[in-house]
Request: fold
Amino acid sequence: MFSSYFKNSLFIVLMVVLSAGAIFGQTTSFTYQGRLTDGGTPANGNYDLQFALFDAADGSNQIGQTKTLSSVPVSGGVFTVTLDFGGNSFTGANRFLEISARPSGAASFILLTPRQPITSTPYAVRSVTASNSEMANNAQQLAGLAASQYVKTDDSRLSDARDPKAGSASYVQNQTNVQAANFNIGGNGSVSGTLSGGTVNAATQYNLGGQKILSLSPSDNSLSLGSTGNVGIGIVSNSKLAVAGMVESTAGGFKFPDTTVQTTAAAKAYVTKGGFEIELDHGGYTNISTLSLPPGTYLLTATVHFWNKADGGFLSDNTRLVQCQFNDEYVGMFYMGAPGNPMYHFTTTMHTLFTLDASGPVSFKCGDYYADAGQVFARDRRLTAIRVGDVVTQ
Reply:
Protein backbone atom coordinates (compact mmCIF):
# COMPACT_ATOMS: atom_id res chain seq x y z
CA MET A 1 0.00 0.00 0.00
CA PHE A 2 1.45 3.36 -1.04
CA SER A 3 0.64 6.62 0.65
CA SER A 4 1.72 10.21 0.14
CA TYR A 5 1.27 13.39 2.10
CA PHE A 6 2.21 17.02 1.41
CA LYS A 7 5.05 18.59 3.42
CA ASN A 8 3.88 22.21 3.64
CA SER A 9 6.89 23.68 5.41
CA LEU A 10 9.51 22.43 2.91
CA PHE A 11 7.23 23.01 -0.10
CA ILE A 12 6.53 26.58 0.91
CA VAL A 13 10.22 27.36 1.25
CA LEU A 14 10.91 25.99 -2.22
CA MET A 15 7.98 27.81 -3.76
CA VAL A 16 9.00 31.15 -2.30
CA VAL A 17 12.22 30.84 -4.27
CA LEU A 18 10.20 29.76 -7.30
CA SER A 19 7.84 32.67 -6.97
CA ALA A 20 10.70 35.17 -7.03
CA GLY A 21 12.13 33.48 -10.11
CA ALA A 22 8.79 33.44 -11.90
CA ILE A 23 8.38 37.22 -11.54
CA PHE A 24 11.66 37.69 -13.42
CA GLY A 25 10.43 35.71 -16.42
CA GLN A 26 11.19 32.07 -15.53
CA THR A 27 8.92 29.14 -16.56
CA THR A 28 5.52 28.20 -15.06
CA SER A 29 6.90 25.01 -13.47
CA PHE A 30 7.05 24.52 -9.71
CA THR A 31 8.66 22.02 -7.33
CA TYR A 32 6.60 19.41 -5.48
CA GLN A 33 8.07 17.31 -2.66
CA GLY A 34 6.27 14.43 -0.93
CA ARG A 35 6.76 11.30 1.15
CA LEU A 36 5.99 7.86 -0.23
CA THR A 37 5.61 4.73 1.88
CA ASP A 38 5.64 1.18 0.60
CA GLY A 39 4.09 -1.45 2.92
CA GLY A 40 4.03 1.02 5.79
CA THR A 41 7.75 1.81 5.57
CA PRO A 42 9.48 4.65 3.78
CA ALA A 43 9.97 3.73 0.11
CA ASN A 44 13.42 3.47 -1.48
CA GLY A 45 14.34 3.03 -5.13
CA ASN A 46 12.97 4.30 -8.42
CA TYR A 47 9.24 4.83 -8.97
CA ASP A 48 7.06 5.98 -11.84
CA LEU A 49 4.72 8.79 -10.77
CA GLN A 50 1.62 10.32 -12.40
CA PHE A 51 0.20 13.72 -11.48
CA ALA A 52 -3.23 15.13 -12.47
CA LEU A 53 -4.74 18.49 -11.52
CA PHE A 54 -8.42 18.86 -10.53
CA ASP A 55 -10.64 21.70 -9.37
CA ALA A 56 -12.08 19.78 -6.41
CA ALA A 57 -11.07 17.16 -3.86
CA ASP A 58 -13.33 14.73 -5.69
CA GLY A 59 -15.01 14.79 -9.07
CA SER A 60 -13.84 14.34 -12.65
CA ASN A 61 -13.21 17.95 -13.80
CA GLN A 62 -9.49 17.67 -14.62
CA ILE A 63 -7.42 20.78 -15.33
CA GLY A 64 -4.81 20.34 -18.04
CA GLN A 65 -3.12 17.07 -18.98
CA THR A 66 -1.79 14.23 -16.80
CA LYS A 67 1.98 14.41 -16.23
CA THR A 68 3.91 11.10 -16.07
CA LEU A 69 7.44 11.05 -14.63
CA SER A 70 9.46 7.85 -14.95
CA SER A 71 12.19 6.47 -12.65
CA VAL A 72 11.84 9.13 -9.98
CA PRO A 73 14.38 8.36 -7.22
CA VAL A 74 12.86 7.94 -3.76
CA SER A 75 15.13 7.86 -0.69
CA GLY A 76 13.81 7.30 2.82
CA GLY A 77 10.33 7.86 1.39
CA VAL A 78 11.11 11.37 0.17
CA PHE A 79 10.89 12.38 -3.49
CA THR A 80 11.13 15.72 -5.28
CA VAL A 81 9.73 16.46 -8.75
CA THR A 82 9.18 19.49 -10.98
CA LEU A 83 5.67 19.91 -12.39
CA ASP A 84 4.36 22.25 -15.08
CA PHE A 85 0.64 22.42 -15.84
CA GLY A 86 0.97 25.79 -17.57
CA GLY A 87 0.15 29.18 -16.17
CA ASN A 88 -3.46 29.06 -17.43
CA SER A 89 -4.19 26.18 -15.05
CA PHE A 90 -3.91 28.51 -12.05
CA THR A 91 -6.63 31.15 -12.24
CA GLY A 92 -6.99 31.72 -8.51
CA ALA A 93 -9.64 28.97 -7.90
CA ASN A 94 -8.99 25.87 -5.74
CA ARG A 95 -6.74 23.21 -7.21
CA PHE A 96 -6.06 19.62 -6.05
CA LEU A 97 -3.24 17.28 -7.07
CA GLU A 98 -4.04 13.60 -7.71
CA ILE A 99 -1.00 11.28 -7.54
CA SER A 100 -0.56 7.70 -8.81
CA ALA A 101 2.60 5.58 -8.31
CA ARG A 102 4.20 2.25 -9.23
CA PRO A 103 7.65 0.73 -8.93
CA SER A 104 9.55 1.48 -12.12
CA GLY A 105 8.63 -1.09 -14.78
CA ALA A 106 5.52 -2.39 -12.89
CA ALA A 107 2.38 -3.13 -14.87
CA SER A 108 -0.04 -0.52 -13.53
CA PHE A 109 -0.26 2.64 -11.41
CA ILE A 110 -1.83 2.68 -7.94
CA LEU A 111 -3.95 5.73 -7.13
CA LEU A 112 -2.94 7.48 -3.91
CA THR A 113 -5.70 9.10 -1.92
CA PRO A 114 -6.77 11.63 -0.93
CA ARG A 115 -6.00 14.34 -3.51
CA GLN A 116 -3.54 16.90 -2.17
CA PRO A 117 -4.70 20.55 -2.10
CA ILE A 118 -2.44 23.07 -3.88
CA THR A 119 -1.59 25.84 -1.46
CA SER A 120 -1.16 29.49 -2.43
CA THR A 121 2.57 29.27 -3.05
CA PRO A 122 2.43 27.57 -6.51
CA TYR A 123 0.15 30.37 -7.66
CA ALA A 124 3.25 32.57 -7.94
CA VAL A 125 3.66 31.11 -11.44
CA ARG A 126 0.57 33.02 -12.45
CA SER A 127 2.57 36.25 -12.55
CA VAL A 128 4.22 35.03 -15.76
CA THR A 129 0.98 34.70 -17.72
CA ALA A 130 -1.39 36.98 -15.81
CA SER A 131 -2.10 39.25 -18.77
CA ASN A 132 -5.83 38.96 -18.16
CA SER A 133 -5.58 40.29 -14.64
CA GLU A 134 -5.82 44.08 -14.27
CA MET A 135 -3.78 43.96 -11.07
CA ALA A 136 -1.02 41.90 -12.70
CA ASN A 137 -1.03 44.16 -15.78
CA ASN A 138 -0.44 47.20 -13.61
CA ALA A 139 2.18 45.56 -11.41
CA GLN A 140 4.96 47.34 -13.31
CA GLN A 141 3.01 50.57 -13.89
CA LEU A 142 2.29 53.65 -11.81
CA ALA A 143 -0.92 55.53 -12.59
CA GLY A 144 -0.96 53.90 -16.01
CA LEU A 145 2.66 54.88 -16.79
CA ALA A 146 5.57 52.50 -16.95
CA ALA A 147 7.69 52.59 -13.82
CA SER A 148 10.68 53.54 -16.02
CA GLN A 149 9.01 56.94 -16.53
CA TYR A 150 9.53 57.85 -12.89
CA VAL A 151 12.69 58.82 -11.05
CA LYS A 152 13.68 57.70 -7.62
CA THR A 153 13.85 60.10 -4.71
CA ASP A 154 17.65 59.96 -4.75
CA ASP A 155 17.89 60.72 -8.50
CA SER A 156 20.36 63.59 -9.08
CA ARG A 157 17.97 65.27 -11.47
CA LEU A 158 15.72 66.21 -8.55
CA SER A 159 18.44 68.47 -7.17
CA ASP A 160 20.13 69.50 -10.42
CA ALA A 161 21.15 73.17 -10.14
CA ARG A 162 21.59 73.73 -13.87
CA ASP A 163 19.36 76.24 -15.71
CA PRO A 164 16.58 76.35 -16.56
CA LYS A 165 15.27 75.60 -13.08
CA ALA A 166 11.61 75.55 -12.20
CA GLY A 167 10.18 79.06 -12.58
CA SER A 168 13.20 80.24 -14.57
CA ALA A 169 12.70 83.01 -17.14
CA SER A 170 14.51 80.76 -19.64
CA TYR A 171 11.26 78.86 -20.15
CA VAL A 172 8.87 80.09 -22.85
CA GLN A 173 5.68 80.19 -20.80
CA ASN A 174 2.03 80.54 -21.73
CA GLN A 175 1.34 84.17 -20.88
CA THR A 176 0.77 87.52 -22.57
CA ASN A 177 3.57 89.41 -20.82
CA VAL A 178 6.90 89.87 -22.61
CA GLN A 179 9.35 87.15 -21.54
CA ALA A 180 13.14 87.43 -21.72
CA ALA A 181 13.56 83.95 -23.17
CA ASN A 182 15.48 82.66 -26.18
CA PHE A 183 14.46 79.58 -28.12
CA ASN A 184 15.63 77.63 -31.16
CA ILE A 185 13.15 75.24 -32.78
CA GLY A 186 13.79 72.84 -35.65
CA GLY A 187 11.04 71.70 -38.00
CA ASN A 188 7.80 73.37 -39.05
CA GLY A 189 5.32 75.30 -36.94
CA SER A 190 2.13 77.30 -37.27
CA VAL A 191 0.48 80.17 -35.43
CA SER A 192 -3.28 80.62 -35.68
CA GLY A 193 -3.20 84.17 -34.32
CA THR A 194 -0.99 87.20 -35.02
CA LEU A 195 2.77 86.69 -34.91
CA SER A 196 4.73 89.83 -34.04
CA GLY A 197 8.44 90.50 -33.77
CA GLY A 198 10.92 93.35 -33.59
CA THR A 199 13.23 91.89 -36.22
CA VAL A 200 12.21 88.97 -38.46
CA ASN A 201 15.09 87.24 -40.23
CA ALA A 202 14.08 84.80 -42.97
CA ALA A 203 16.86 82.64 -44.39
CA THR A 204 15.49 82.43 -47.95
CA GLN A 205 12.00 83.82 -48.54
CA TYR A 206 8.68 85.16 -47.25
CA ASN A 207 5.31 83.70 -48.23
CA LEU A 208 1.74 85.04 -48.17
CA GLY A 209 -1.11 82.57 -48.58
CA GLY A 210 1.43 79.86 -49.40
CA GLN A 211 2.85 81.88 -52.31
CA LYS A 212 6.37 83.32 -52.42
CA ILE A 213 6.29 87.12 -52.31
CA LEU A 214 9.87 88.02 -51.38
CA SER A 215 13.10 86.03 -51.74
CA LEU A 216 16.86 86.57 -51.70
CA SER A 217 19.33 85.04 -54.11
CA PRO A 218 22.30 83.63 -52.15
CA SER A 219 24.61 83.99 -55.16
CA ASP A 220 24.44 87.78 -55.56
CA ASN A 221 22.13 88.91 -52.72
CA SER A 222 19.60 90.17 -55.27
CA LEU A 223 16.03 90.60 -54.06
CA SER A 224 13.18 89.03 -56.04
CA LEU A 225 9.50 89.92 -55.72
CA GLY A 226 6.94 87.17 -56.24
CA SER A 227 7.49 83.75 -57.78
CA THR A 228 8.06 85.26 -61.27
CA GLY A 229 9.92 88.42 -60.25
CA ASN A 230 6.92 90.65 -61.06
CA VAL A 231 5.43 93.14 -58.64
CA GLY A 232 2.40 95.38 -58.95
CA ILE A 233 1.57 98.20 -56.56
CA GLY A 234 -2.01 99.40 -56.70
CA ILE A 235 -2.77 98.13 -60.22
CA VAL A 236 -2.85 94.89 -62.18
CA SER A 237 -0.26 94.70 -64.92
CA ASN A 238 1.86 92.22 -66.84
CA SER A 239 4.90 94.46 -66.49
CA LYS A 240 7.74 93.51 -64.19
CA LEU A 241 6.96 96.61 -62.14
CA ALA A 242 3.73 98.59 -62.33
CA VAL A 243 3.04 101.49 -59.98
CA ALA A 244 -0.14 103.51 -59.72
CA GLY A 245 1.43 106.75 -58.54
CA MET A 246 4.68 108.71 -58.59
CA VAL A 247 8.03 106.94 -58.92
CA GLU A 248 10.97 108.97 -57.65
CA SER A 249 14.71 108.58 -58.07
CA THR A 250 16.58 110.71 -55.56
CA ALA A 251 20.02 109.69 -56.90
CA GLY A 252 21.44 107.68 -59.75
CA GLY A 253 18.56 108.14 -62.19
CA PHE A 254 17.32 105.38 -64.50
CA LYS A 255 19.23 102.97 -66.73
CA PHE A 256 17.76 101.80 -70.05
CA PRO A 257 18.34 98.61 -72.07
CA ASP A 258 20.74 100.42 -74.42
CA THR A 259 22.95 101.04 -71.32
CA THR A 260 22.16 104.78 -71.29
CA VAL A 261 21.52 106.36 -67.91
CA GLN A 262 19.12 109.23 -67.46
CA THR A 263 19.50 111.27 -64.28
CA THR A 264 17.41 114.28 -65.34
CA ALA A 265 14.27 114.62 -67.40
CA ALA A 266 14.63 114.21 -71.17
CA ALA A 267 13.05 116.63 -73.68
CA LYS A 268 13.65 119.60 -71.41
CA ALA A 269 14.07 122.83 -73.41
CA TYR A 270 16.50 125.68 -72.76
CA VAL A 271 16.04 128.92 -74.76
CA THR A 272 17.84 132.27 -75.12
CA LYS A 273 17.09 135.05 -77.58
CA GLY A 274 18.13 138.58 -78.46
CA GLY A 275 17.05 141.22 -81.02
CA PHE A 276 19.78 143.85 -81.13
CA GLU A 277 22.37 143.85 -83.91
CA ILE A 278 25.85 142.32 -83.46
CA GLU A 279 28.48 142.79 -86.16
CA LEU A 280 30.31 139.60 -87.11
CA ASP A 281 34.07 139.35 -86.69
CA HIS A 282 36.22 139.63 -89.84
CA GLY A 283 38.14 136.37 -90.31
CA GLY A 284 37.08 134.96 -86.89
CA TYR A 285 33.90 134.17 -84.88
CA THR A 286 31.54 136.27 -82.82
CA ASN A 287 29.51 134.70 -80.01
CA ILE A 288 25.95 135.71 -80.79
CA SER A 289 23.97 133.35 -78.39
CA THR A 290 24.94 131.31 -75.29
CA LEU A 291 23.15 128.80 -73.00
CA SER A 292 24.49 127.30 -69.72
CA LEU A 293 23.48 123.63 -69.62
CA PRO A 294 23.91 120.56 -67.35
CA PRO A 295 25.59 117.44 -68.75
CA GLY A 296 23.56 115.63 -71.36
CA THR A 297 22.79 115.11 -75.00
CA TYR A 298 20.95 117.98 -76.69
CA LEU A 299 19.28 118.86 -79.96
CA LEU A 300 20.55 122.39 -80.65
CA THR A 301 18.65 124.76 -82.92
CA ALA A 302 19.87 128.27 -83.81
CA THR A 303 17.78 130.78 -85.72
CA VAL A 304 19.31 134.13 -86.82
CA HIS A 305 18.64 136.97 -89.25
CA PHE A 306 21.74 138.26 -91.10
CA TRP A 307 21.96 141.79 -92.52
CA ASN A 308 24.53 142.82 -95.15
CA LYS A 309 25.38 146.51 -94.90
CA ALA A 310 28.60 146.52 -96.94
CA ASP A 311 29.35 149.67 -99.00
CA GLY A 312 26.56 151.50 -97.29
CA GLY A 313 23.99 149.13 -98.70
CA PHE A 314 25.12 149.35 -102.30
CA LEU A 315 26.17 145.79 -103.17
CA SER A 316 26.25 145.86 -106.90
CA ASP A 317 29.49 143.90 -106.98
CA ASN A 318 30.14 142.96 -103.31
CA THR A 319 29.75 139.50 -101.63
CA ARG A 320 30.18 138.17 -98.10
CA LEU A 321 30.88 134.56 -96.87
CA VAL A 322 29.36 133.75 -93.44
CA GLN A 323 30.35 130.61 -91.42
CA CYS A 324 28.91 129.34 -88.08
CA GLN A 325 29.58 126.74 -85.33
CA PHE A 326 28.23 125.47 -81.98
CA ASN A 327 31.13 125.87 -79.52
CA ASP A 328 33.93 124.44 -81.68
CA GLU A 329 31.70 122.22 -83.81
CA TYR A 330 31.38 123.56 -87.38
CA VAL A 331 27.83 123.55 -88.78
CA GLY A 332 28.04 125.36 -92.14
CA MET A 333 28.78 128.43 -94.29
CA PHE A 334 26.96 130.41 -96.99
CA TYR A 335 27.40 133.40 -99.35
CA MET A 336 25.41 136.54 -99.02
CA GLY A 337 25.05 137.21 -102.67
CA ALA A 338 27.42 137.00 -105.61
CA PRO A 339 29.05 139.50 -107.97
CA GLY A 340 26.29 141.31 -109.79
CA ASN A 341 23.68 139.60 -107.53
CA PRO A 342 24.03 141.00 -104.01
CA MET A 343 21.94 139.72 -101.01
CA TYR A 344 20.94 142.28 -98.45
CA HIS A 345 19.55 140.03 -95.71
CA PHE A 346 18.16 136.56 -94.99
CA THR A 347 17.04 134.32 -92.06
CA THR A 348 18.43 130.83 -91.53
CA THR A 349 18.06 127.94 -89.03
CA MET A 350 20.84 125.47 -88.15
CA HIS A 351 20.60 122.18 -86.17
CA THR A 352 22.99 119.75 -84.55
CA LEU A 353 23.01 116.94 -81.95
CA PHE A 354 25.48 117.92 -79.26
CA THR A 355 26.79 116.11 -76.14
CA LEU A 356 27.96 118.08 -73.14
CA ASP A 357 30.14 115.97 -70.82
CA ALA A 358 30.06 118.43 -67.93
CA SER A 359 28.00 121.43 -66.94
CA GLY A 360 28.97 124.50 -68.94
CA PRO A 361 28.10 126.89 -71.76
CA VAL A 362 27.03 126.08 -75.31
CA SER A 363 27.53 128.97 -77.69
CA PHE A 364 26.38 129.73 -81.25
CA LYS A 365 29.14 131.60 -83.09
CA CYS A 366 29.31 133.13 -86.57
CA GLY A 367 31.88 135.22 -88.51
CA ASP A 368 32.76 136.84 -91.86
CA TYR A 369 35.18 134.48 -93.54
CA TYR A 370 37.11 137.20 -95.35
CA ALA A 371 39.39 139.22 -93.14
CA ASP A 372 39.07 142.36 -95.32
CA ALA A 373 35.31 142.15 -95.47
CA GLY A 374 32.85 143.50 -92.98
CA GLN A 375 29.52 145.12 -92.38
CA VAL A 376 27.59 141.81 -91.75
CA PHE A 377 25.27 141.94 -88.74
CA ALA A 378 23.26 139.33 -86.82
CA ARG A 379 19.90 140.23 -85.30
CA ASP A 380 16.74 138.45 -84.02
CA ARG A 381 18.78 135.63 -82.60
CA ARG A 382 17.30 132.53 -80.88
CA LEU A 383 19.17 129.49 -79.46
CA THR A 384 17.17 126.43 -78.25
CA ALA A 385 18.59 123.31 -76.54
CA ILE A 386 16.28 120.32 -76.06
CA ARG A 387 17.69 117.67 -73.77
CA VAL A 388 17.13 114.20 -75.24
CA GLY A 389 19.17 112.04 -72.85
CA ASP A 390 22.08 111.59 -70.51
CA VAL A 391 25.73 111.46 -71.46
CA VAL A 392 26.45 108.09 -73.05
CA THR A 393 29.36 106.35 -71.32
CA GLN A 394 31.10 103.44 -72.98
